[in-house]
């Protein structure tokens, strides 16, 4: 049986792992390689690295750390941030990343998804979506350039429509970052996840809000997401990955126990 | 030992090289036919579309080279699929060691592509899975698959059962990525290299 995936996310800035609350006020967590290695040993099924400065700065970011991660890690990992062209993606994949994830550049040019999928195969093209719940209108909106407070903008896209659109263009997986929940540890937005799950035919990864072990269980049991991504709870060692996986297995979730 | 990773210009060459280096070997990535023919062990990694991969092999004049190799050769993911006769992905004829067609994974209401860690059930006795327990998890990422056939040495299930590993003569293939499958993957690579 295909196992549900536990995915620690490492936000990378200037070669170090950082973490903010609701995408702001980043504090340094540590060096990339030792942390990646620790997670792999603890039983993470996959790692995601978000170079959170890349898209907002519009500059070329040094990605040689990707090769260092590939050297020591024996689980799959995905790199996000600043991938705007086929060449950007080719470079990161050649360093040893298994997948690339695009977010802001896909909003700027949705055909980028198709070009990446044609060149590298849909299986390595992940689309990250930053979604904000507007309580007044009860609508979900897609945001762009969330790595930089000054540039963060609401797009014209309703989240459900954008999820449909990226699948048409060949997205192989969708990571839904629920901004209202990010870093506040109150649980994933299950209501939103349920509506997205209904229209999402590719693997769906929940992101933003995990604080307790039962939050992961809820996302798997109630929404049937394929993976659950979290950062703070793992970085700050509030939740141990091995214990989390044992808990999920005990509660009937298909899990790879290490 | 002389280990060659055949350079197909595809994406996961580095990961395969690192995984073998972690086992203490020094593999070389090359598309030089002489080096390939002289190698003790060959690996054929592949990511992307079958048609593009066959084009790469043709451009490098490697199709005939791979066909005459007699040393143990391990195809990984798309590399394994190329061992079949034909692929529906891009509707292209492939290397033809296994007289089967690679087909799209049928839509059984599950998310596609098949992505993540799935359990693999080997047939008893194949050296490739020596000391790897039944039902061990390996990492898969693919949208097309090889149906179960006489060359199947291990299977997995996602909606329906399909081939997770094959062997035909000196050609071994795995649909999953041993280089990204933790300890189980490392053990499988070690088994292959120690054949």
UniProtKB/TrEMBL annotation, chain A:
Pfam families: His_biosynth. SUPFAM superfamilies: Ribulose-phoshate binding barrel. Pathway: Amino-acid biosynthesis; L-histidine biosynthesis; L-histidine from 5-phospho-alpha-D-ribose 1-diphosphate: step 5/9. It is an enzyme of class 4 (lyase). IGPS catalyzes the conversion of PRFAR and glutamine to IGP, AICAR and glutamate. The HisF subunit catalyzes the cyclization activity that produces IGP and AICAR from PRFAR using the ammonia provided by the HisH subunit. Heterodimer of HisH and HisF. This is Imidazole glycerol phosphate synthase subunit HisF. It comes from Frischella japonica. The lineage of its organism: Bacteria, Pseudomonadati, Pseudomonadota, Gammaproteobacteria, Orbales.
From TrEMBL, chain B:
The active site is at 77 (nucleophile), 177, 179. Its EC number is 4.3.2.10, 3.5.1.2. It is found in: Cytoplasm. Coiled coil: none annotated. Pathway: Amino-acid biosynthesis; L-histidine biosynthesis; L-histidine from 5-phospho-alpha-D-ribose 1-diphosphate: step 5/9. It comes from the Bacteria. SUPFAM superfamilies: Class I glutamine amidotransferase-like. Keywords: Amino-acid biosynthesis, Cytoplasm, Glutamine amidotransferase, Histidine biosynthesis, Hydrolase, Lyase. The keyword Amino-acid biosynthesis applies. Residues 38-193 form the Glutamine amidotransferase domain. IGPS catalyzes the conversion of PRFAR and glutamine to IGP, AICAR and glutamate. The HisH subunit catalyzes the hydrolysis of glutamine to glutamate and ammonia as part of the synthesis of IGP and AICAR. The resulting ammonia molecule is channeled to the active site of HisF. HAMAP family: HisH. Heterodimer of HisH and HisF. This is Imidazole glycerol phosphate synthase subunit HisH. The lineage of its organism: Bacteria, Pseudomonadati, Pseudomonadota, Gammaproteobacteria, Orbales. The gene is hisH.
């Amino acid at each position: 049986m295909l196992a549900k995936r536990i995915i620690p996310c490492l936000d990378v800035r200037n070669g170090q792992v950082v973490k903010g609350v609701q995408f702001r006020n980043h504090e340094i967590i540590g060096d990339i390689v030792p942390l990646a290695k620790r997670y792999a040993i603890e039983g993470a099924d996959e790692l995601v690295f978000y170079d959170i400065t890349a898209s907002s700065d519009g500059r070329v970011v040094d990605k040689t750390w990707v090769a260092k991660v590939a050297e020591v890690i024996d689980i799959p990992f995905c790199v996000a941030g600043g991938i705007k062209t086929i060449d950007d993606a080719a470079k990161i994949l050649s360093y040893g990343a298994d997948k690339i994830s695009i977010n802001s550049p896909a909003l700027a040019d949705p055909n980028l998804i198709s070009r990446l999928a044609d060149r590298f195969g849909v299986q390595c093209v992940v689309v990250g979506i930053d979604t904000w719940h507007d309580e007044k209108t009860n609508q979900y909106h897609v945001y762009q350039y969330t790595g930089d407070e000054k540039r963060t903008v609401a797009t014209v896209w309703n989240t459900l429509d954008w999820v449909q659109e990226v699948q048409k263009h060949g997205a192989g997986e969708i990571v839904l970052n629920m901004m209202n929940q990010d870093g506040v540890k109150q649980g994933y937005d299950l209501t939103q996840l349920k509506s997205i799950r209904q229209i999402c035919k590719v693997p769906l990864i929940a992101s933003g809000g995990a604080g307790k072990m039962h939050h992961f269980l809820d996302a798997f049991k109630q929404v049937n997401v394929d993976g659950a991504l979290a950062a703070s709870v793992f970085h700050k060692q509030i939740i141990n990955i091995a214990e989390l996986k044992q808990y999920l297995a005990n509660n009937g979730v298909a899990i790879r126990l290490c | 030992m002389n280990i060659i990773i055949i350079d197909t210009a595809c994406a996961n060459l580095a990961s395969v090289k690192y995984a073998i280096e972690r086992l203490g070997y020094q593999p070389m990535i090359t598309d030089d036919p002489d080096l390939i023919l002289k190698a003790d062990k060959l690996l054929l990694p592949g990511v992307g579309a079958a048609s593009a991969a066959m084009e790469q092999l043709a451009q490098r004049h490697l199709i005939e080279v791979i066909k005459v190799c007699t040393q143990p050769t391990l195809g990984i993911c798309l590399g394994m699929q190329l061992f079949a006769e034909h692929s529906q992905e891009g509707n292209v004829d492939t290397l033809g060691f296994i007289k089967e067609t690679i087909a799209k994974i049928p839509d059984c209401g599950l998310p596609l592509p098949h992505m993540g860690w799935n359990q693999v059930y080997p047939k008893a006795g194949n050296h490739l899975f020596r000391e790897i327990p039944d039902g061990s998890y390996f990492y898969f990422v693919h949208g097309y698959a090889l149906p179960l056939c006489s060359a199947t040495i291990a299977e997995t299930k996602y909606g329906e059962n399909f081939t997770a590993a094959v062997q035909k003569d000196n050609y071994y293939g795995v649909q999953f990525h041993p280089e990204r499958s933790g300890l189980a993957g490392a053990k499988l690579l070690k088994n292959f290299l120690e054949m």
